[in-house]
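Hi, here's the filled form for the chain we discussed.

Project: internal
Contact: R.S.
Residues: 178
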Amino acid sequence: MSNLVTCNPAALQALMSEAIFTHGAAAQQFLPADGGGSLGSPITESVGEEFIYQGDKSTGILFILRYPAYPYFSPQAEEAFVKTIGALNLTLSNVAVVNLANAHNPNDFKRIMTFFEPKKITLLGVEPASLKLPDIGHNSYMKGRVATVFNTFSFEEMFADVEKKKLFWGEFKTFIGS
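And the returned structure, exactly as it came back:
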């Protein structure tokens, strides 16, 4: 019997339930076929740079979170995140997501701004004060010289309180659409 060898991402995804990474500076992970994201769409994770992040920083849309137990999101939060941004014609591959709980990532807003050069930043459960930003109420945003920062709850907080989810969705649509 010979070994099965393929580099076709769709075939690999169908055969394996684990995340698949390439060797080198950029890794690609393919979403599971259980409805989490679009089947077979690659998510690029950048490694070996100042920040370890997922997605594409060139679009100017950045999500900052702090999930110590996960590389990015819990499985339930990732599914909700994918659906949420998908409703606004965004995908995991055309936004940037950085987890400040990753010890490699600096918790320094100036470095975040310099590296990502974002125009729109969403803080998902990250208190603005932890980044030395002025107080921004939940589901509110602050316009800066370069970027606008939207402060909201983590997905876990929204799962626990439907009212928080409703408030988030109304403001988030306005924020991304502006």
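Let me know if anything looks off before we file it.
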